[in-house]
Amino acid sequence: MEPVMAVVVGALFAASVYMMLRRSIVKLVIGLILLSNAANLLIFTVSGLTRGAPPLIPEGLEVPPDAWADPLPQALILTAIVIGFGVLAFAVVLIHRAYEVVGEDDMDQMRSTDT
Amino acid sequence: MGSLILRTTTRLLLPLLLLFSVFILLRGHDEPGGGFIAGLIVSTAFALYLFAFDVARTRHLMGADPRLLLGLGLLIATLSGVPQIFLGEAFFTGLWWPIEVPGLGEIKLSTPLVFDIGVYLVVLGAVMTIVLALAEAEE
Amino acid sequence: MPEWVISVVFLLLVAGLIMTFVRLVRGPSLPDRVLALELLALITVAFILIYAIAVGVPAFIDVALVLALVGFLAAIAFAHFLEQGGSGK
Amino acid sequence: MLIAVLSGFILAAASPWLARSVGDKAGWLLALLPAALFVYFLGFVPTVNESGAQVIHYPWIPALDVNLSFLVDGLSLLFALLISGIGTFIIIYAGGYLHGHPHLPRFYAIMFAFMASMLGLVLSNNLITLFVFWELTSITSYLLMGFNHEDKNARWCALQGLLVTVAGGLALMAGLIMIGVAAGSFELNEILTDGDVLRDHPWYIGIVLLVLAGCFTKSAQVPTHFWLPNAMVAPTPVSAFLHSATMVKAGVYLLARLNPGLGGTDLWLYALGIVGALTMFTGSFMALRSTGVKAVLAYTTIMALGTLVMLIGIGTEGAIIAAMAFLLAHALYKAALFMLAGALDHETGTKDMLKMGGLRQLMPITFLASCVAALSLAGLPPLFGFIGKELMFAATAGAPGLAFFTTVLAVASAMMIAGMAAVFAIRPFTGTLKETPKKPHEAPPSMLAGPVVLAGLGLLFGLMGFIPAAAIVQSAVAAVHGAPVEVQLYLWHGINLPLMLSILAIAGGVVLFLRWERVLAFYRERLGFIDRFGAERGYEKAMEGLVWIAEWQTRVLQSGYLRRYLTITVLSTVVLTGWTFFGHTGSSVPLGEVGFTFYEFAVAALVVAGAIVASVTSSRIGAAATLGMVGFGVALIYVMFSAPDLGITQIMIETLTVILLVLVLFRLPGFLKLSSPTDRIKDAATACSLGALMTILILAVNGVTVTDPISDQLTAWSYTEAQGRNIVNVILVDFRALDTLGELFVVGLAAIGVYAMIRFRAEDRRQ
Amino acid sequence: MTLLVWNILLAFAWIALTGNFTGSGLIAGFFFGYFVLLLISRASGKRPTYLRKVPQTINFMLFYIWEIIQSNLRVAYEVLTPTHNMRPGVIGLQLSCGSDAAITMLANLITMTPGTLSLDVSSDRRMLFIHAMHIDDEDQLRADLKHLERRVMDLLDETGEQDA
Amino acid sequence: MSVAVALPVLIPFIFGSLSLVFFNSHAVQRWLGVIGTGLLFLATIVLLHKTWTDGIQVMAMGSWPAPFGIVLVADMTSAIMTLMAGMMGFALAVYSLPSISRDHEAFGYYPLMHLLLAGVSGAFLTGDIFNLYVWVEVLLVASFALLILGGERGQMEGAIKYVTLNLFSSIMLLVGVGLTYGLTGTLNMADLAVKLPEVEQQGLVTVVGMLFLVSFSIKAAAFPLFFWLPASYHTPPVAVTALFAALLTKVGVYALYRFFTLMFGNDVGYTHELLLWIGGFTMVTGVLGAAAYYEIRRILAFHIVSQIGYMIVGLALFTPMALAGGVIYIVHNIVAKTNLFLVGGVIYMMRGSYDLKQIGGLWKTRPLLGVLFLLPAMALAGIPPLSGFLGKYVIIRAGVEVESWGIVAVSLGVGLLTLYSMVKIWAEAFWKAQPEEHAARAERFEQALSQKSMAIMLLPIIALGVLAAVIGLAAQPVYEMALVAGHQLLDSTDYIEAVLGVTP
Amino acid sequence: MTVVVSLFALIGAGFIFIAGLGALRMPDMMLRMHATTKAGALGVGLISIGVGLHFGEASYVVRAIAILVFVLLTAPVAAHAIGRAGYFTGVPFWEKTLKDELRDKLDTKGKKLYSGMERPDDVDRDDRS
Ligand code: NA
Ligand code: NA
Predict the structure, then answer these.
(1) What predicted TM-score, i.e. pTM, was given to this entire model?
(2) Do G21 and G68 belong to one domain?
(3) What is the pLDDT of residues F336-376, one digit of tens each?
(4) In CATH, what is the architecture of A2-49+70-111?
(5) Which of A80, A91, A97 minimises the CB distance to F151?
(6) Sign of CA dihedral D157, D161, D164, D167
(7) Which of A103, D338, F203, G63 is least surrounded, with the fewest CB atoms within 10 Å of its CB?
């Protein structure tokens, strides 16, 4: 499954970057959402995929039976998901405000600070 | 949203969601769940209430300003790791106090639990700060 | 549960997923997309439940439980959006 | 010694306060410091003459070979005496010249800082410390040049001087560091004892070129001489000080100082000899056409600097003697002349010699002092300037390989200078009294003390050459030459080639003086192109070019288009990583086992399809809905591969994201198709390249087997040590609680940010 | 009183969730339920009494499940047949019940039963608008709906046409 | 176990949380701001002192030994960087008192400031690569929020670019962390220093290193990835810009130092050659960018880019002296650049504009401010004996010693252009007479500025100006510390032993 | 027991398939909703019962029931919300739709929906909730 997931992650990265390269600020945000999903899945995939063995220790045992999925990447991704959400919330409201002050959903109109 | 049906259902769902969130919070150490997920669930509960009613009522329901919850949560989470230093342990060293309460069985009070409660409050405070601010702007 | 049952069940669920996805993409109105999304949430609940049986891990039921509890919120949110005057375009 | 050098800085800090509290006559009081220093340095003369160079060492940054070590030998002492001696008169003079100026206290402060820097420069034994003071002279002289800073021209000229000298200074810095590294020591007394180490080092040519770049710019050698006349925008006391004994002499000083270490090669000879001679000629040539009292002196300074550089380059014993004698002579007469020029300017209100005349009766002392100093400039006996010039002619005539070239230029220069000296001494004072902007009368004593004393010294030293010779010139020559030399300075050496050349030069000078109007006309009519094509134009073009390049680069790079920024960023990532993967390391992509069930594949495919649809859909809210689907798909993937906590979190976050998008998006407009098809294809290519890179990286890393991940230990401890059965949660709240804490703050911060964004606006509206 | 009932219900919900069918689980559930109620009691509203409704409720649930199954078979038929024989339309149903709970319950039940979908309640709560797949026989449809309303009202102890 | 190493993180966290709890009381927030940053400053001094006297400081959070839990580690580099964070935090808290508007206070300026500092300190001190990602996000989101406080158009536009490009950077960092875990099964930096060289496919290690290189280069605003900085830094209030200028890009630089000494030093010939080119181009493009502008904050913003180049060059040259030079340069730059922004803020308070074409006459009326500008400006231009000269000298000398002539030439040339920019500000804002057409506004602003506000703002300016001089003058101890830092970076034995308790 | 569980799963999945098919091929939004709400909810409900039976243990059974209850509770509310919003925003009906008694009762501006039975002295009862 890893090769399939590798392609999925690649596709998510590509889609997100493509979205971010649009002129629409709304698409920009959607691109950001996809980007963070892509990175999380990348970590998930690259540390190995395990089927049906969540890292939970059943009652009566001290470690999970047999092989279990690596819990550490899961914890990292969980953190990354939540961080991604925080950042996303900010970004969404930011584009909303930017739209309000600029009056257009067009990144190309937002150049006053550089030139 | 001025829908009677939604409002009534929300009144029914709200206690269930709140209870469920506490449940998810407390058992997270042993099964899927924990402070985050619980905090997110309780946030969605209030968000649902917000959609069914309005900002004022949601604020009233919550009682405390979500920014206060946010600050308190952060303070609790941070401070849950500090006192250990006075016992000569590193910050955030887990301390456990299994307490035998008559009729309740053993309750495992611990600093990770306190930490998780902080997490819960932070998530609730943050999400509701955002959602309420947005909804207020909308109104 | 026999292997073939699992396969058939998944086949049905996947078919449902795909058809729902087509509706999600085709729209044409926002409510159409939202109801597709709502159905997707339901199918996902079912999918997770079946998966829990297939691999024999009851812990996954909790995932389904959460989704069942909050899945309809997206629909409520979209409905709210529409009633606030959003166009969906 | 340390106190002696640094006292200037201390006084600089205190002088504004002192000047304000003492009032009018502060100049006289403040001059006590340089006077005391002069006496202090004078005290070193016998010691140095008897027991040679003294090194005084104070550690500063020994780990970096930077020390406050001072080398007191003939050369540094000569300079130190000139700086403190002339400095004394300059301070007094400034009190008169800038009388009543509101910023006079500030002027004193900068002046003292400058003086102290100059002293430090000439006394430093450490290359880096020397450079420190070198740079300080550039900065402080910048502040002095721009003293009349509300005048745009003054700012412009000051900037020019600063940039030219600092540019050279930076080259010098590299050169000095290279010397230190090559010689294995940054202490001059150690470096200079064995010059062959440097001369034989592979870096030698580089070192010489860098050092010359520094010295030539500082000492206004062609083609960077143009800044010096412009520096005349400074108040006259500054010009007098900078041009006679300090600042512009720093380059000469350093060349002389390093001569034992770097000199004696063909490179040194030709570089210094040719550039010096050309500078000498250029200075004289430009002086001849100047009508401003200060401009004339500025160009003659260039002449003198060229002469000194040339002489150091020639490097023979005679040349070094000539250099030191000329240096001393020049310092004396130039300081005097500048102060006199300032007196004229101060009293008449104009700098143009053509507008002055008949001032002899009104300003007799000025006239007398001018005559004496100008005679020294012209190189007439019995003044000290004559001795210097005689020695110079002797040296050029004996220059190895450059005799003819240098001698011809030297004689030509001497002619022109003689002519201009006459113009300066005679034109303003003779003839009929002309109307000037101010009503002239004799300058105050503060402004005459310096010129009179210095001009008098020129006469004294000319008549009694043995005094300077024995006191200081001999030991200075020894320091520059690197070996003891016997020096005797006389007016009369018998009838020889130098004398003939002197006579020739003076005769020519007389002719030029008499025909000066015609000369000026000739310059005006025939030689105007010099201004259009001179080196200064080059500077201006360089500055324009710099600004042009800067603006062009900024337009191109900082275009304001986020899309372009992002494209560059993404492509940088892909190219750098991709090249490292395939090109540099030649890594390969192992295709592991591709085992999957149909429903896993279906979910994966739906995620991809959803992502693609979201990116091409024209419905904004449709994209949000499709995103929700991608989110559910990702949650399913987490569940299918044993991550229930992730599945739940993903679902919750997805739901909240939809809520958020919905709350925000409803006010935004729909998508507009704004980019062109070409753009879209390019963007798709960019996007796909990153996607492909990530796919490859995953596959490659998946091919690496990890034997003992740290999570094995975490799993083992989860229940036994941390009392939790959900290992992921135990990691979150215990093993890696700090991550979680940080993440909480991220969420909290985002909430504050959102709150502020929304509410701040609300406040705006209310107002 | 109603709050107490709610609290007990929540306590049971708690032990159901935790799977901890012991006294301590019940106490804990009661405890947490109490806090939940404390919190939401801010959003005050009328609560019906529940205790004596248990058998009635079970009865009703069975009825309801049956309705759902019926409804689904009908939908399945419509979906699976290649041609559409539906005659859809929106009708307004005059309401007898007046309480929020009853209306909501009725609306939700209608949604889950054969070929009908509640759209909304009029602002004065006298009319429920319903989208139906088949309004060929509108009278029968209305009769079925009124029957459902009656059952809901029985369950919730409402007498009809009151509430003012 | 060292308590000191955790305090620079916990203190701002606690005070940030407290500020949030007292969200509506501005007076309390102000006090918390000054006290909290003051304590942080003290804590960082203690930390540096302990690190200097007792060696590398480590605390395993939660008592979980490395590499299993998260460790906080302070070697000299970390301790010095943290000290700078504490110092700047305190200076800016004081400066903020009169210069930050009521509105900013009402919308979370102080908590954001505390938490930004926490993020920065955490990033400097963590010994875990994922934890570094978390800290980077903390400081990033704090900076997002600070950036938009005020809600003006320019802020929004700048913020969009800032957010987007920095997020891309964070994602690359996250990807890099994920891949590193996939390669080694560990996240602890010291453990990685041991395990990365043991990976069979060494090529892949370098490849993953490139992702970190890209990510941190974006954060550090290195060429060609700096766009976000000039687009946004001049938009918020000057105290915020100063805070950013002081610390944000330095986190990127620090991370480059940490990663490309301790962990990704397996292919120095390649990676550091690359860094050298990046550093060179960064210097040149940055300084040219500054030359193109006539607005104080923009000039200063572009100079940040330029000076990042010097720091990267210090790393790229990869000798103890070069690394020490880099560390000194970072310290110097933080002190001088922050101070320049602060002076710029005072100029604004007195003239109502940052545009050099609209202001002037300051040298005539405000000589003290002139001196206070010259100190950091000349320091930045590398004029001796101020702090910048020390950094420049060490780096150039290191360059000369390894005969890296190209970079020596570029460094020197860039120094000249830096001076040009500083003198441009000086000549226009201080020397030039106040332009008549803007005199009315200037007068209005000057009158509105109270003596007390001015005095409070000048306090940190004077302190930092003196510090710039002290660093240059008392260079021996500064260099000794930096050299120890350089040695520790180059030879990771001590670091690994301190963290893992084993000698590699 | 396996057979029962399999049956629940199969039938449930079948209903979900029908829901998906309905979503795809029903002619208008309202009719699609009939399919998705009912078949979807029932399908999930059946499957969750199957899961409860499969795992048998009390806590899982309770959770399975909880899923069932939640779905049956929330699905109609979601349907109501979407349907109402869709109707209010004017999503077109299938051309074979026979009648629409709501059309003239809606006041979108005042956000009011009239019953057509209002008495003149009516207070706005909406305020009560
Ligand atoms: Na791997
Ligand atoms: Na975490």
Answers:
(1) 0.93
(2) yes
(3) 999 999 999 999 999 999 999 999 999 988 999 999 999 99
(4) Orthogonal Bundle (1.10)
(5) A97
(6) negative
(7) A103
